[in-house]
Amino acid sequence: MQRQEVRLQRRQRVGLRMASDSTHDQTFSPLSPLGREEYIEQVHFFEALSERLEANIPAQEVLKSIREEVLATTKLPMAIDFLLGELKHLGVLGPAMARLPHYFTPFQSFVVRESESSRLKFDLRVGLEVLRREAEYRSGEPTRPGIFLYQFEALCRNRLGYDRGLEAVALDPAFDATWRDWILNMRRTIGMVDLADLIFVHSEYYWQRQGADPSATEAEAGGIAKSREEAVVLFGEREGRIALANRRKDPLYLFSSLQRQLGYPQVPRQKQADTEQSLLPQLARRLEQLESRLKLLEEEQRGGLDLTKFYERPQPEAGL
Predict the structure, then answer these.
(1) 171-218 per-position pLDDT tens digit
(2) What predicted TM-score, i.e. pTM, was given to this entire model?
(3) Which of 22, 102, 128, 280 has minimal Cβ neighbours within 10 Å of its Cβ?
(4) Quick check: 22 and 100 in contact, CB under 8 A?
(5) 112 near 84, Cβ under 8 Å?
(6) Residues 10 and 85: beta-carbon distance below 8 Å
(7) How would you label 296-308 residue by residue, b for 16+ Cβ within 10 Å and e otherwise?
């Protein structure tokens, strides 16, 4: 009951934020192609699916119940009907989501498919939480740098692989051709060039510093210098400042700074298994075994140990 109240309050908070934004009355935007109403319902879908699967409820029953909960005015009920039909035939959700590219993004399909893979230690509940936070961010006022850095951090923290992961990120409809080309080229340089350097060189702050001191900026960027007209500026001034301050540091510090300063969503982390929950049942079984052994010792000391009750009764022969 408490989880349901928390989930209801979260949905109301997202809905109030959408209604109170008078400067963004449009339902659709390039960064939220489905509309805020769809993403709010996706937040509820991913959250309810994660919580009920954790309670060991069958996935088919979970989808049927969520199908009745979501708004009928959205396209999510039709998507759930398709997922339910594919789940009955295939037993997994990833391929079914990939067959709905007009509703689920390639990154969403990639996360669910990797969480269902047996070769990775990536929990499905963590994957659903990743998608829930992304949908919640898109229901507000998302930015392209915020969406990209959130998805990229999800790939890093969960070790989902840069090759196929960045390809799925580049196919997101929120990114235009310039972003898509840069993300695909990034796959070849991500292991050799620091992420902070990539953000700094393609930020507005880089060109502000170059106008003030071109030689110093070119040295900081590792000799990368272009004209302002030929430059690919993808990040703003604040992203560039934060990236410059976190050069030659752990990328996790960069992600943390961006989340604090710019309000980017935080990627969920893997939860460690709680050993205390399984400790009590193990102790109870050990005590039962000790109790049965003590009873046998007491009967043996009294001389009343009856071994016949442990004998197996002879089976009658087949011919008799």
Answers:
(1) 999 999 999 999 999 888 887 888 999 999 999 999 888 875 544 444
(2) 0.74
(3) 22
(4) no
(5) no
(6) no
(7) eeeeeeeeeeeee
